[in-house]
Specification:
By secondary structure, the protein is of the alpha/beta class. The structure holds glutamine.
Length: about 525
């Protein structure tokens, strides 16, 4: 396919938040990739945190980590899961990081005595960040999702920046605006007024949307489409219906049915003859909708009141379950409510248990109780990061008879620190962006569940932690039934522990969930689901 010069697609949202801009951006990206184009998606977040790494998951949902160690918005997870492309530091921009760059430059004297202002200095920095991805020359399309809702004070500099970019690039840039068409049951009607107002707000900032994607619970009639087109000043074919879908993975097909990709190519003057290759995606959807079996898996965590806190884990279950023709029912188990007295009752009948990542000591004893139960009852266990560390502590306390065993994170004065702070973390006091982050190498022992899953000795996985297995206890664990089967070849850090004398007991210091995607479900999740299926039999 002939390469085209990079095109920029800006996605804004109106009327209300949570309309699913991220899924629409990812679905559009998927359709363009399926036509053979090279696509990346970027998220601009209008908050003042430098990144979401310091935010409580209840504020923001999961913090997603890129291979190059950026702590980012969870929408980047959607982009990777849909596009099967890695995102990077450059794919998530926050107001905090924009201001930080501008203020650092000001302190260095780079502005040569000028007054530093939102326009042009902040907007110029936003424009530079948007163009970084296009300037690599790697992409035909850069899709930029602007967080928040138009009309928000915080969003204004972003809206102004993308207005300027379009003015500079003319036909190489395009605006998609996502809105809500509410249904008033009393009137029995879909209402277009909020959308009209939202477009008006955009127009006040000098932006005329080219395409409207309309979230709706009821199909848009011809009449409604005509009305939206006329009053919002867009072509009728550019009014795209976005009905609520059973699964987020159906949305690319819904967008294709509405010709979103074709309308975009036409508006960007791209003559496109390529077919959309969605065979594998369709195959995935067929399997997703026609499972042959099901398993019940417990997810033990302390942020379970907001399911988005464990977004990537839930999606990884969907990918691997589908791969194995199996529906994975998740039972959400609050770690803080899991005591000695109710652990049997809470976990009874589960075919597998995943103990989630986390920070701090709240809920940790519940996690340890859960692990004891699954270890003693031969139920498949998957521990991720803190989940793995809890498995190490549980084994020490109940098998190695070390009653004081703990992580130094939970008890800095413990005499039996089976999980210790990493050497290079000891003098770190700043909280933001200072963990061990991103992809590192790991070498696997051949005789392990993990090797059987990966079928490869050398793997790379993403990390986000400050504490590690204490290698002082390495020999004790290995000779007592918990094996360290994956290690970082450069510094010997223990990456994977397993109990070979158990149907499936694997704890990983890294985060496999970040790199599972629709077309490449993660090998460890595949293997865990297989073990759950066997457990059910
Ligand atoms: N709190 C633990 C650490 O920092 C685990 C982190 C995690 O689960 N991501 O090492």
């Amino acid at each position: 396919m002939n390469r085209i010069s990079t095109k920029y697609i800006f996605v804004t949202g109106g009327v209300t938040s949570s309309l699913g801009k991220g899924i629409i951006a990812a679905s559009l990206g998927k359709l363009l990739i399926s036509r053979g184009y090279k696509v990346t998606i970027q998220k601009l977040d209008p908050y003042i945190n430098i990144d979401p790494g310091t935010m409580n998951p209840y504020e923001h949902g999961e913090c997603y980590v890129t291979y190059d160690g950026a702590e980012t918005d969870l929408d980047l997870g959607h982009y990777e899961r849909f596009l099967a492309n890695k995102t990077s530091q450059a794919n998530n921009v926050t107001t905090g990081s924009i201001y930080q760059t501008v203020i650092d430059k000001e302190r260095k004297g780079d502005y040569l005595g000028k007054t530093v202002q939102i326009i042009p200095h902040i907007t110029d920095e936003i424009k530079r960040r948007i163009k970084i991805l296009g300037d690599t020359g790697e992409f035909d399309f850069v899709i930029t999702e602007i967080g928040g809702t138009v009309g928000d004070i915080e969003s204004l500099p972003y809206i102004e920046a993308v207005r300027q970019i379009k003015w500079e690039m003319q036909s190489s840039a395009i605006y998609i605006h996502l809105t809500l068409i509410p249904y008033l049951s009393a009137a029995g009607e879909l209402k277009t007024k909020p959308t009209q107002h939202s477009v008006k707000t955009l127009l006040e900032s000098g932006i005329q949307p080219d395409i409207l994607v309309c979230r709706t619970e009821h199909p848009l009639t011809e009449n409604i489409r005509q009305k939206i087109a006329l009053f919002c000043n867009v072509e009728k074919e550019a009014v795209i219906e976005s009905m609520d879908a059973k699964s987020i993975y159906e949305v690319p097909l819904l967008m294709q049915k509405e010709n979103l990709d074709k309308v975009i190519l036409k508006k960007l003057n791209i003559k496109d003859t390529a077919d959309v290759q969605l065979d594998k995606w369709n195959n995935f959807l067929f399997k997703l909708n026609n499972p042959k079996k099901e398993v019940n898996v417990g997810l033990v965590g302390k942020y379970i009141k907001l399911k988005d806190s464990y977004k990537s884990i839930c999606e990884a279950f969907i990918h691997s379950g589908t791969e194995k023709d199996c529906k994975v029912n998740i039972k959400w188990i609050h770690a803080e409510e899991l005591g000695d007295e109710n652990v049997n009752e809470s976990l009874k009948g589960l075919n597998g248990v995943l103990v989630a990542p986390g920070f701090g000591d709240r809920g940790i004893e519940g996690k340890i109780n859960a692990i004891r139960y699954v270890r003693e009852n031969n139920i498949p266990f998957f521990g991720i990061c803190l989940g793995m560390q809890c498995a190490v502590i549980e084994f020490a306390r109940n098998v190695l008879k070390m009653p004081e065993a703990n992580s130094k994170e939970m008890n800095p004065n413990t005499d039996q620190p089976v999980i210790d702070i990493m050497e290079d973390q000891k003098n770190v006091s700043n909280k933001g962006g200072t963990m061990r982050l991103g992809e590192y190498n790991c070498t696997l022992e051949k005789n392990s569940y993990s090797f059987a899953a990966y079928k490869n000795i050398n793997i790379q996985e993403r990390h986000r932690h400050r504490y590690e297995f204490n290698n002082k206890y390495f020999d004790l664990y290995n000779s007592s039934g918990m094996h360290c089967v994956g290690k970082n070849p450069e510094n010997n850090l223990v990456e994977i522990i397993e109990i070979p004398n158990h149907p499936w007991f694997v704890g990983v210091q890294f985060h496999p969930e970040y790199s599972s995607n629709v077309l490449n479900p993660h090998p460890l999740f595949n293997s865990f689901i297989e073990a759950c299926i066997i457990n059910k039999k």
